[in-house]
Amino acid sequence: MKDRENRHRISNETVGALWAAAAPIELPLPGAPFCSLRIDPNAGTLRLRTAYQLPEPDVGTLHNVDFHAVVEGSDDVAEIVVSVADDGVEVGYGFLAAVVAQLQKEGRPLAEAVATAVSQFRDLTMARSPLPIEREIGLIGELLFLDYCMSVLGPQAAVNAWHGPLAEQHDFAVGSVHIEVKSTTRDRRVHVIHGLDQLEPLTGVPLLLVSIQLTRSSPDSGRTLAAIIAAVRAHAGAQRSALDAKLAVLGWNDFDADLHDTPWAVRSAPLAYSVDEDFPAITSNRLGSAVPHLGQISDVSYRVNLTDTDPTALPHPFQDFTEWSQQ
């Protein structure tokens, strides 16, 4: 019985040996409907081919798995493509073999066969998820300012000055000034402040808050987060690796790029505010004498509305950021 149930399977050893041979090869799999397995070590893929069916499998939110519909002569062919590394060939093949078993042994439609295999191989096909919208908005603001810094400081100095991904106190530390970049999609300049130290200036170091208002736009007048990242990467040059490392810390994954499909545009000219003794910030220093055992309080967040607060000018060499950001 076991041999009959597994007649569609090529042994893991055979697949491993063919992968190690480093030459693409396609093998027919016995049974109906028709299925074949294409092993392509050079492309890093295993590809299951079978007859096309509607509905198509839903793999759009999965890592490592893709779907293609192709026409060959008069036939419509479905391809389930799994991207694997050398140490993942056995798991990738097991997933495709599970799809074949559902098609041939259970007689299930293609979409259902793939969905069942996904539930069995959750680690391989881990569902993708976009960054939360708040983090997407925040990252866009920081990248816009980083991109400008590259133009006035050079890529190396700008990437080194970007401290946001390093869990440092402020987003940018440039020379004798620190800058915290805050973005919002509200009509008013309302920003969320996380923690009691985010707006705590260091002794003798001026701190500025740069307020950026964003709005959903059209592809003609706005850019997606992925497009902004692509532009910043292009400007980074030799600093691309350092930049990518910081993006990874913030949760960016290129596999999820298509999930961030909203075009964003700068709604109004960014404004800067001096975080001084008159700024409405809640800080450890200000609360220290009023709150007993302040160190036992954690996860403090609050909103600050800067709409009616007088802005200040950005110092050299950032004074043109307001105009640059709206180009």
Provide a descriptive summary of the structure in words:
This protein is α+β, with helices and mostly antiparallel strands and 327 residues long. It has two domains: 2-120, no CATH class; 133-324, no CATH class. It contains ten helices and twelve strands. The protein has helices at residues 2-5, 12-20, 89-104, 110-120, 133-153, 155-161, 225-236, 240-249, 284-287, 321-324, and strands at residues 25-29, 35-40, 45-51, 65-72, 75-83, 172-174, 177-184, 190-194, 207-216, 264-266, 271-274, 301-305. A five-stranded antiparallel beta sheet has the order 1-2-3-5-4. Strands 6, 7, 9, 10 and 11 form a five-stranded mixed beta sheet that branches. A hairpin with a 2-residue loop joins β6 and β7. α5 packs across α6 (155-161) and α5 (133-153) packs parallel to α7 (225-236). The radius of gyration is 26 Å and the shape is elongated. The model is unreliable at 1-8 (pLDDT under 50).
Question: What is the ordering of alpha helices and beta strands?
Answer: HHEEEEEHHHHEEEEHHEEHEH
What form results from the Cα inertia axes? Answer: elongated
Structural class: alpha+beta
Q: How much helicity do the residues have?
A: 25-40%
Could you describe the largest sheet, including whether it forms a barrel? 5 strands, antiparallel
Instruction: Give the strand order, joined by hyphens, for the main sheet.
Output: 1-2-3-5-4
Q: In angstroms, what separates the terminal alpha carbons?
A: 69 Å
Please report which band the strand proportion falls in: under 5%, 5-15%, 15-25%, 25-35%, 35-45% or over 45%.
15-25%
Indicate the low-confidence ranges by residue numbers.
Answer: 1-8
Q: What Rg, in angstroms, do the CA atoms define?
A: 26 Å
